[in-house]
Structures are given as C-alpha cells and as structure tokens.
# Entry
Amino acid sequence: MENHMDRIVSLIVILLTPFLALAQPRKGEFKTESTFRAGAAVSNVTPFLGNEIVGNFNTPPATHIHDDLFVRCLVLDDGSVRLAFGVIDNVFVREEVLDAAKELVYEKTGIPTDNVMLSSTHTHSATSAGGKGAKRVAWDMGEQFDEYQVYLIRRIADGMVCAVNNLAPAQIAWGSVDIPEHVFNRRWKMKNLMTNPFGGRDQVLMNPGRSNPNLVEPAGPVDPELSFFAVQSLEGCPIALLANYSLHYVGGVPSGQVSADYFGVFAKKIDGLLNRAAGDLPFVGIMTNGTSGDINNIDVQSEAVRYEPYEKMSLVATDIAAKVFSVYQKLKFQDRVSLDSKSAMLTLGVRKPTQQMLDRARKFPELTKGERYHRNEHIYVERIIDMQENWPDSLTIDLQVFRIGGVAIGAIPFEVFAETGLELKEKSPFDATFIVGLANGGFGYLPTPKQHELGGYETWLGTNRVEIHASEKIVKTIVDMFGSLRD
# Structure
C-alpha cells in the first residue's frame, strides 16, 4: 500500500512540476519586494608573501604587505533583478578563475553568472592571479588552479554573500566630473622610428621619458571623465560609491611590497569624506579601471618631481576623491530604479607570428648581444613561440553590459584604449555611460586598427593577442547591447 501511495505522490509531483516552475522567479530574478535595495561588503584577498609581484617585466617576490588587497563587492536589487559588482585589487585575473568564482557566487546567492561583473583594478603591486612564471602570459586554459587562484575564488564568493546579507532599502544617484590633470597618453609619436623586438620599426614609443627631443605629439586622446554612482540608505547613510576613471596605476611602490595603489587609497579617502557615523551600514568605496590601456599619470612635458614611496598615489587619490565628493553633495537620490543586463560571446581571431618571426625566435639563443634587435627581445621570443604552439586560432570573449536606471556600464576583458572608451560613450543611447576594463578576464591590450599601424609596445604580438580589428567588433557588439537595453 505504501509503495502504491508513493507512486501516486510521485506522479502528482511530476504533473505539478511545470506549474510550480511557472510560479518561481526566472533565473536571475528575485521576487522579493518592490523597494530598491543595495548591499556592499569587502573581502580580503591579500596574497601570501613569497609569491611573485607582477605587472612589469621583472617579478620580485612579495616580501611585505604595505596595505591589504580586497575584492570590493556591491549588489543591487530592484525587486526583480539583482546585479553584482566585484572589483579585485589585482593587475588582471584569468577568465577561467572569474568564471569559477561566478559559478560559486550563483551557488551561494542565486545571482546568475550573467548578472555578475568581476573586474581587476590593474594595480602593479599585487601577486599573480594568472598562474606562476611563464604561465601568467601563456595559454593554459583547462589547467588546475594554483593555491592563490583557489583562495581568490572563495574570497570573491564570500564577499558577494556578505553583500547580499547587507542588502537594505536604498536610494541611488549618479554623476560625473572631468579631472584631466592626472591623465596623460603615454604613447608618443616620435621624429625617428624606433626598433621593436621583432626587427620592425615603430612610429610610437610608450613612456618616452621626460623632455625627450624626439617627441612629436601624443598618439591618442585621453578621457578625463570620472563617472560614478552612489547608493545610500533611505535615511541618507552612504552604502557604497562605485567610480570609474581611465587611469593606469600610479605606482611609487618599493620593490617587493604589496599595495592596492591609488584604487585602494581612493576607497579610503571617499569613505573618510562621507564622514559616516558609528553604527551605520557598512560602506564600500570602489574604483574601477576604465579605458586606460594607453593612459598613465606621467606628464613627459613637465619637469620631474621627486616623490616619496606611496606619496604620488595618495595625492592623486585624495584629489579625485575630493572632486567626486563635491559632486556627490549636490546629487538628488531616488528610491526606485530598474536594473537589467545583457551579455554576448564574441569570437575573435588570434594573431600568429610570421615564419620569419619564428625562424628568428629559434635562432635567438645563438645571437650575440650586438645582433639582437631590442633589450626585451628575449621576452617576446618566448611569447611568440607560445602564441604559435599553444594558443588557439580564435578565442571567445565574454562581453557584458548593465543598465542601472539611466546609467549604462560596459565590461571588456582587455586593457582598452581611451579612444575606444570615448567612442562607446559617444555611440551609447544613454545619458551616462562608462566602460570597465579588464572585466571578466584579461587578454592583453586592445589597440584600435589605427594604433596598430603606428606600432609600439601595446601593439606587439604577445602584448596584444587578438586580431587587428578586434576593437571595432567589440564596439559594435557593445553598442548593439546598449541599444537592446534602451528599447
């Protein structure tokens, strides 16, 4: 009798399952309440000492923690859709590491992977999250995660869980301010052509040095706009502020020291300016990396100023935080805003070395110092062999856009040039738009076709890995997604 009843109950469950499913929220939707809510949290991702610090050609071991590294998390909920941001203090994090983190976030919070935007700040004083040694720039898709990558995945998910736990009724506002005094195009056209590691001749030189008599003009524009949005409780208590500025790291970090660079200093400075009372909701200041692939903080046309370690990044972060705060004070917050997201997978061709490049690379160990093209040729010899032997002929990247009321945010897994960011802002149908670089992965630099013609470090094979027209395809895809969110 019990077996008979069990079969009847099972049959009823099977018959009712389609109707029960209709009553459940669709994946990515949260039928909680109509009130807009926000929650923020930080999760410490400070690496172990001894791991290699990356971002430059030399990779010294970490010997000291100057300031902790974090993933700064923010979750927004409009009653139907949740969007999540996780901004990681690292130079870049591999796509497969971020994918694993997103899956864990979904498992623990129910936020679908398409609604989670994970990005790196691009600090040059963090240890590798892309593997150790040559693996950091090599193709190693499918290999087992190392100890720090596993740790990072767990801490990203922990931060998101805490941000969800902190969700509270909220208000939101957004604004922007131009801050041109800290951004300079680091790619300069030169009077005399420069030899690159492949024996070719470049018209452009990255970081040409101050007062160089060979300078002609910057090879591209800068984007001076700092865009941000802020959320606060219904009582006016700040919850989070997420900013976007198209500036590389500032630096000034002694060798072997770990630091979040100006991104971390900004988070502290904006927190201090908001002057929160004890016992208020947890506040998180966040600075995302914009389209800064060709932008740094060095004015090569001015006289050099000597700074103490960490001094310049503090000056930059203090200034931009003050300018953001001046706009913040005039914002009008609203307690209702709708959220949405779109994602698209775009396949791009992978650049491959010519036969001449390969022949030269295999002959390189036999060359004397005087026969070599460039002081960094040995580095690119390894990279082009890896590009030929290990990289696929194409790769598929994850492009993502969020809509937060009248704000559109695009995410690109490259170091994007400022002119691409400016083009996307111009073509966006939204009043406020910004682009997060090194988001959902990091596949190197993304020069425009025009910049490829000029040459320079960012265009070299092994620094840039995808087809020359990749930036154009990415712009078209994101603009189309912006349009679909606007409809």
Q: What stands out?
A: The mean pLDDT is 91. DSSP finds ten helices and 23 strands in the chain.
